Amino acid sequence: EHVYQPYRTGYHFQPRKNWMNDPNGPFFYKGWYHFFYQYNRNAAVWGNITWGHAVSTDLVHWRTLHTALKGDDWYDVKGVWSGSAAFLPNGTPVLYYTGWSNASQQTQAMAVPEDPSDPLLKEWDKAPQNPIALTPPGYNSSQFRDPTTPWMGADGEWKMLVGAVVGEDQLTGTALLYTSKDLFNWKFTGKSLQSIHGTGMWECPDFYPVDLHQKKGLETSVMGPHVKHVLKVSLDLKKHDYYSVGTYDAKTDSYTADNNKLDTGLGLRYDYGKFYASKTFFDQNKGRRILWGWANESSSVADDVAKGWSSVQCLPRHIWLDPEATTNLVQWPIEEVDALRMNKMTKEGITLEKGAMVDLMRKGTQLDIEVEFAMPESSEGKAQSPELLAENGHLQCSDLVAGKKMAHGFGPFGLHVLATEDLAERTSIFFYLYNDGKGGDWKTLFCGDHSMSSLQTDVDKTTYGSYVTIHKSDTSLSVRVLVDHSTVESFAQGGRTVFTSRVYPEKAIGGAAKVYLFNNGSESVTVKSVSSWDMASINIKFWSGAP
Ligand code: DQQ
């Protein structure tokens, strides 16, 4: 059983072995955080999907339990697919999921805890009302899935969304609206919360309120003048999670995105790297909303099988509306993650001349690094419009790596992590600022260059990133990078733009992995401060009984 495992993470959630995908139905109950995930108990590839179950008191250290939900009835015998959790009025949690039936049709179903007094909620029973929904006439029964957390509507009835696709061309993504008086008996309203042509199947919708003025999270049913709503969908066609901030009209149960100019009306991405099928939940323990997202592998299926596992969950992220620009959300690793920090090192006031590279004297593959750059002078005070956040930032980053010259730029400057001393391997996270030279606004790109991340040739090395919104009051550009073997999560400007990388260095592993600050731009930049930490490994106590 001893396989060479340089890519297994040290402080991200992973089951002991085999395949994992979407996060499902997270919630907090009787002192425990419950986390479920799409899980194949038999192999490191997708198939035979069940709900794996893990619990934690701090969202950092985990205990896995035996499978919570597996396919054993006609409506879910081929698989228990993604879904969400809710609380009954008496406080008991229930789970909603999609079943893949014996006839390969998608159904919606639910489960209740066998013993609500058990804080670990080990045993779940399928509800007698199952299936709670079958594909409505006229809809595609193989594109009808992923129920959301229900919320209480203005009419006193519960509402829930199920992702689907409609239209002759099957390209109009939609979120079908269901209602219920008791959370057990559901009916289709015949309506959608929103539909957008050209987006294809909407997987894993998520719909929730955010406070206009506060970082604190809101319980899913909260409405009112201080509230905006977020609709997130996972686009099967693009394999990315998109969201919009908008207005929910509770009288008509419709939702309108505030900024329709953005690409698809959904426009923004939580994460410009590997991050899919995400799900938020309201953590009533700490009064915040937390986002979980799945980061799939970027290596071959053969590699997954050889190492015996596939995929990680990103660190849970605190998520809220940017108080300075209510057009977009901000994400930050939950504060509990900071408890893993060790051996802090700080340096201040480093000038990075053109072409400079500075060794941070920090080695290893479990790191947390925060860098604050002084805002390059010529760009200071130049605001950027939210339209700039649209998806083509990704293309701009690729152009940069290809060496295409942009007019009037600062950078690329940033960090190389998981880097060998000769830079034969390196994962580079950097900023690039430019304008058109005609007095227009500056634009700031935040990019991840993975082209040199591994000497291996059969791993995905796509470059990604996007624009970062810079407010007039910003005096620095900051980045936080969390390195964990094959997973790197990078947050710019306090979490306004984020991307997750999966990388597989061959030489930059263990003590050979170094960190450098670099400036490959033509102008010098100043590092106001850089702090770095080693990150402790988390404790995951794996279930040892029957799966
Ligand atoms: N994964 C699940 C589906 C969902 C998809 C199946 C998204 O329910 O639509 O494993 O990754």
UniProtKB/TrEMBL annotation:
<dbReference type="GO" id="GO:0004553">
    <property type="term" value="F:hydrolase activity, hydrolyzing O-glycosyl compounds"/>
</dbReference>
<feature type="domain" description="Glycosyl hydrolase family 32 C-terminal">
    <location>
        <begin position="336"/>
        <end position="534"/>
    </location>
</feature>
<protein>
    <recommendedName>
        <fullName>Beta-fructofuranosidase</fullName>
    </recommendedName>
</protein>
<dbReference type="InterPro" id="IPR013148">
    <property type="entry name" value="Glyco_hydro_32_N"/>
</dbReference>
<dbReference type="InterPro" id="IPR023296">
    <property type="entry name" value="Glyco_hydro_beta-prop_sf"/>
</dbReference>
<dbReference type="InterPro" id="IPR001362">
    <property type="entry name" value="Glyco_hydro_32"/>
</dbReference>
<keyword id="KW-0326">Glycosidase</keyword>
<dbReference type="GO" id="GO:0005975">
    <property type="term" value="P:carbohydrate metabolic process"/>
</dbReference>
<dbReference type="Pfam" id="PF00251">
    <property type="entry name" value="Glyco_hydro_32N"/>
</dbReference>
<dbReference type="InterPro" id="IPR050551">
    <property type="entry name" value="Fructan_Metab_Enzymes"/>
</dbReference>
<dbReference type="InterPro" id="IPR013320">
    <property type="entry name" value="ConA-like_dom_sf"/>
</dbReference>
<feature type="domain" description="Glycosyl hydrolase family 32 N-terminal">
    <location>
        <begin position="12"/>
        <end position="333"/>
    </location>
</feature>
<dbReference type="InterPro" id="IPR018053">
    <property type="entry name" value="Glyco_hydro_32_AS"/>
</dbReference>
<comment type="similarity">
    <text>Belongs to the glycosyl hydrolase 32 family.</text>
</comment>
<dbReference type="Pfam" id="PF08244">
    <property type="entry name" value="Glyco_hydro_32C"/>
</dbReference>
<dbReference type="InterPro" id="IPR013189">
    <property type="entry name" value="Glyco_hydro_32_C"/>
</dbReference>
<keyword id="KW-0378">Hydrolase</keyword>
